[in-house]
Amino acid sequence: MISEIIKNRRSVFPVQYNNQPISEEEIQKIVGAANWAPTHRKTEPWRFKIFHSETARKKLADFLGKTYKDIVENPSEFKQQKIEEKPMQSACVIAICMQRDPKESVPEWEEIAATSMAVQNMWLTAHDMKIGGYWSSPPLKDHLHNLVALNKGESCLGFFYMGKYDENLSEGQRKTSIGEKTTWV
Description:
The protein is α+β, with helices and mostly antiparallel strands. It is 38% helix and 17% strand. The protein has helices at 2-8, 24-34, 54-71, 77-89, 108-128; strands spanning 46-51, 92-99, 131-136, 154-164. Strands 1-2-4-3 form a 4-stranded antiparallel beta sheet, sandwiched between helices. The radius of gyration is 17 Å and the shape is globular.
């Protein structure tokens, strides 16, 4: 039931992933779910750059590590190592990109919201398939154009790390009830 999938979805981090591969078919199913996100004026702004093979993930890891070292005033070797480990601990990393409508027929925040809903569809689908996911939006995302071509008006909103996992996920919690966040008018 969809309400249970929503309630039980968790962030699962690269350090929690086992070494089981995610097939191309599984990735296609996950990104296919993204394509059904709501989108104002049917702009469908979501774009994805998939780093699936070990070679592609290594290329991303090296790029992120080097970029971190280049843009940070006093880079930490420990942090650089952690940045480089994440893609290699993952079975797949998807760069989450947003293509701005060239006509700017809708506000940019709506394009970002639509892309976020596409990612939520991916996340829920992955969770249902017992594939963990984690959306990270480090400042390094703003440099992705130096690794892969982005179209004019396209920007990276972050990276979606994915991997299969063995452990049981913790039960979800919220600080306050929905009643405390709702006003009936």
